[in-house]
Amino acid sequence: MTRSESNTSIRVWDRFVRLFHWSLVLCVITNYFVIDDGETLHQWIGYLASALVLARIVWGFIGTRYARFSDFFPTPTRLRQHISHVISGQPDPHPGHNPMGALMMLTLIALVLALGLSGFMQTLDAFWGEEWLQELHEAFGSILIGLAVLHAAAAIIMSRIDGTNLIGAMISGVKTRTGKAARS
């Protein structure tokens, strides 16, 4: 039995999506690991991250095909089908986000907005020095980092399962899927 390989490439991630993604990664890493909490720079980077997410939400409605939420919104049916394929070891290729990736993306977006809001609230007189708000903000940050690590690990694992370099695609904008078809 010999194997033949065929590659299919599709331009998926537009320049805005890629710039948004890597800019947000940089904001999150900088704020969590480099800048001390409460510093003015920490606040401004948090506001930038929130602005990036708001811009991405707008782009999710008006952007290119694979950037639109309508292209990948993770409905219960889509999630069940995708999980079933993954569990059974069957490829479940999607040009854009797969349903689990979409769910993760939306969760990460919500967390960044929650961080932005809870961080901003800490600057208001009404919430100044409120320990519960500081703890909530820190918890959101820790959850975001944990889910971001899971997101990166899942991208690596799904790249192997689907035969697509997802990280390379987030750099180049092009998904190249290597299909291996068995021949007798």
Summarize the structure.
The protein is mainly alpha-helical and 184 residues long.
Written description of the protein model:
Helix content is about 65%, strand content about 10%. It is built from seven helices and two strands; from the N terminus they run βαααααααβ. Helix 2 packs across helix 5.
CATH class: Mainly Alpha
Low-confidence stretches: 1-5, 180-184
> How many domain regions?
1
Strand order of the largest sheet: 1-2
Helix content: 55-70%
Subcellular location: Cell membrane
Pfam family, one: Ni_hydr_CYTB
GO biological process, one term: respiratory electron transport chain
Protein name: Cytochrome B
Helix/strand layout:
Layout: E1 2-11, H1 15-34, H2 40-62, H3 69-72, H4 76-88, H5 99-121, H6 131-162, H7 166-172, E2 174-183
Antiparallel strand pairs: 1-2
Helix pairs in contact: 1-2, 2-5, 5-6
